[in-house]
Amino acid sequence: MHGQFALVGYEKGSRTTINLTPTGQKQRGLLALLAYSSNRTLSRHWLRQHLWSDRGNEQAQASLR
After folding, report:
1. Residue 59 backbone phi and psi in degrees, to 5
2. What is the residue extent of each domain of the chain?
3. Whether pTM exceeds 0.85
4. Does residue 3 register a pLDDT over 80?
């Protein structure tokens, strides 16, 4: 599966759809990794290594919270 994706929802009490796709690059990356890995479990450790490998362990853990 490749391409663009969007996370959409409805405004509370309305039928109007709104775009809920995260705007941050890391947030979109995390969402994409989870969506494209639906048949396997990704550990927090694995996610930290792949998304925040350039940061210290404590900062990477805090970013994933």
Report:
1. -70, -40
2. 23-64
3. no
4. no
